[in-house]
Amino acid sequence: MNAHSSELTAVAKGITADELNKFYGGFHALKDFSLEVMPGEFLVLLGPSGCGKSTALRMIAGLESISSGTLTIGDRDVTEVLPKYRDIAMVFQSYALYPHKTVGENIGFPLKVAKMPKAEMEKTILAAANQVELADLLDRLPAQLSGGQRQRVALARAMVRRPSVFLMDEPLSNLDAKLRGNMRAELKHMQSTLGITTIYVTHDQIEAMTLAHRVAVMKDGELQQLGTPKQVYTDPANLFVAGFMGSPPMNFLEGEIKDGVFTGPGMTLTATGYADTAHATLGFRPEDCSVVERGAGQLDARVYTFEMTGDQSLVTFRAGDKPLVVKMPNDFEVAADETAGISLSTSSVCFFDQAAGLRIRPVS
Amino acid sequence: MSAATRRYSLFEPNKIGELSPAAKFALYTFLAAWSLFVLFPIYWLLITSFKTPTAVNNGPFFIPWVDFQPSLHAWRDLFVLDFEDTFRAYTNSIIIAVSSTALSVLVGSMAAYSLSRIEFAPNLITILYFVALLIGSCVAIGVFDADLWLTLAVAVALFFLLARAVGKLYTVRLKNGDVLFWIISQRILAPIVVVVPIYMMFQSVRLLDTHIALILTYAVVNMPIVVWLMYDFFSSIPRDLEESAQIDGATMIMTFREIVLPLSRAGLSATTLLVMIFAWNEYLLALFISTSRAQTLPILVAAMNAGERGILWWTMSVAIIVMIIPVVVLAVVLQKYITKGLLVGAVKG
User: Fold this and answer.
1) What angle do CA A226, A228, A229 make, to 5 degrees?
2) For FRET with A13, which of A100, A182, A193, B59 sits at 20 to 30 Å CA-CA?
C-alpha cells in the first residue's frame, strides 16, 4: 500500500449520542437516546418495526434532524452538520444503487464527488470491487445483477472512500435466507478486517447475536438494554428484551413471590433472596429446562406438539392458555397429549415485576 | 422476485418471427391497411399542396402525373408572394412555443420536485386572508379609485403584520396533495373561459399582440400539466438514491445533475414534447391575444379558410405541412430519451 492510499484509511472513530430526541409533530419517535459506540466497534440496533431504530440511524447519518440532544463523531459535535461532512457511509435496505450508472460508476461515485484523479480512482474502484468479488461485473447496470451482487455493490460503494463510520439499515433483509447467512459472515469478516466503526440496524435477532460486539435493544423509541449479545440473551433487563431475544423465545409463567418461594399455576419454585412480589413473572429459556417424567419436575403439563428440527427436538406444552417450549436433544421423543413434567434449573431462571416489566434481582 | 425477471401477461402473443406464414401474411396485410388508413390524410395533404386551384376544384384526383399535373403554385404563393407573412408566423410560432415550453417545464418541474420531496403545510386561513386582501385591494382601486401604490402598500403591510395572528385563529393545514390538486384544478376549467380577463389584463399593460403575452399565457395554461406529470416521475425516483448521494458527499446541485436529472430524463422529454405540441397547435387563445404582429401558424392556417377568395385548400395544405414538420422532428429526437429512460428503470431489491 503506497503512502497516498494509506491516507485514505481513516482512523476508526467513536460515536456518542447524548439524550437524542426526535419528534414528528406530536409523535415522540425517539426518547432520550444515549449511546456510546467505541472506535472499531460493531454495534447492532435491534428492535421490532416502528421502534425507532431506523430513525436513530438516520439521525446519526444526518438524514433526519435532531430535535434535541447532541451527537458526536470522533471529537466533533456533528449535531447540526450536513451528512456529507460527517465522514460516514451508509448501506440502505434498498441498496440505493444508481440505476443509470454502471457498477463501476456506482462504486466510484463517492470518489468522483471527492474529485479524485481518474487513474487513481480506477485503481481504487478495482481494489474495492476485488474485495467484494465484483471485478468482472464493473460494466454492468444494477438491473442486470442478482440481489446478492447488488448488495456487494452497495458494500463496495460504502467502503471505497474509507469512511470512519459505517451505517447499515437492514442491509440483508432483501436477500433470501441462504444468501443472508453467507453475506452475514462476509460482512462480519469485512468489518473486523477494516476495523471501521459500524452501526447496524436490524429486526432479526439472529443477525444481531451473530454480528454484534454489543447489541442495543429498542422498543417504542426507547433503549431497553445495551450489552454484549451474551449479556442481552442470558441476563435480560426486562420482560420485553427477554421475550424478544431467542428463537423460540423465553417461556413466561405468571405468579407470586412470597417468603422466597415463587408460586405459579400448579407449581412452586424456590426464589431465595427475592423480595415479595404480588404479581411476578417467571422466565426461563427453552434450553434451560428439560422434559422429565410426570411429577419429577417443578410442574406437569400436557404435551401440545412435538417437533423435530434435525439438530434438536422442540416440545411445546400448554400451561393454562400459554405455550411453554422446551428444547431437548434430537434423540428425545414424546407423544402429543401425554402429560409430562418440566424440570427447571433454579440458577438460570429470571424473575420480572409484571407491572413495570422490569427484572427483579435477589436482594442479598 | 428480482427486477430482471420479466412478467408475462396472460396471453403473450407470439413474436412476429414465430408466426406461421398465413398468420404473418394476414398480420402484415392488416398492418399495411391500417397504415394506409392512418397515413392517407397526410398523403392527401401532400398532393393537394402540389395542385393548382383548378386541379383541386375539378374533383378528387390522387395520383400525380396521371390524374393531375403537380405544380409549385401553392408553395410559391406562400413562400414567395406572401413570404413575409409566412416567415413571421413561423418564427412567431417557434419563439412562442419554445419559450413557453421552456418556462413551464422549468418552473413546473421545480414545483413538482419540491412537492414530491418537501412536506408543505400552508394554513388555509392565511391563504384566505391573502385572497381577501387581494380582493379588497382590487375593489378599493377599481371601485373607489384608491391610489394603486398606496393600496398595495397598505395590503402588503396588513398581510405581514397580521398573517401570523390570523393564521392562529383557526388552524386548517393543507397538505401536498391539496396543493397538487389545486394546481391541476386550474386546468379543469378550459382556459378559453378566462380569455376575456386575460385580454383585458394584457390590454391594460399594453402587451396585446406581443410574444410575451402569448408566452406567459401558454406557460401558465400548460404549467398544471407539467406539475402533474413531473410530480409522478419525481415521486417514482426513490428518495434513498438522493440520500445516498448526499451521504457520499454530493452537493444538492450535484445530486440533481447526477442522479435526479438522468433518472427523470424520460419524463422530462415526454412532458416537454406534450407541452410543446399544445403550445404549437394552440389556436383559440392566440386568436384573441394576437392580431397581426404576434400571429402564430394555426391562425395563419385558419385565415386561409375565411378569405374573400374562398377556401384556399392548396396554400392551406402547404402551411399545414410546414407546420407539422417541426413536431415530427422533435418527436423523433425526444423519442430516443423516452425509450432509453424506460429501459433503465429503477432498481428494486
Assistant:
1) 105
2) A182
Q: What does the pLDDT look like over A49-69, one tens digit per residue? A: 989 999 999 999 999 999 999
Averaged pLDDT, A136-164: 90
Helix segments in B6-147, DSSP class H: 21-49, 53-57, 73-76, 83-117, 124-142
Burial of B258 (0-12, 13-18, 19+ CB in 10 A): buried
DSSP summary character for residue B80: I
The predicted complex's ipTM stands at 0.82
- Residue B246 to residue A109, Cβ atoms within 8 A: no
| Residues in chain B within 8 Å Cβ distance of A142 | 347
What distance in Å separates the CA atoms of residue A1 and residue A123, rounded to the nearest whole number?
Answer: 12
Give the confidence band of B203 by pLDDT, cuts at 50, 70, 90. very high
Residues of A in contact with B258 (CB under 8 A): 98, 109
pLDDT (tens digit per residue) in B321-349: 999 999 889 888 888 777 655 545 444 43
HSE of A271, CA atoms in CB hemisphere, 13 A: 29
Q: What are the residues whose beta carbons fall under 8 Å from the beta carbon of B57, sequence distance 6 or more?
A: none
- Please tell me whether residue A201 adopts helix, strand or coil conformation: strand
Name beta bridge partners: A214. A43
Pairing outcome for strands A42-46 and A197-202: parallel
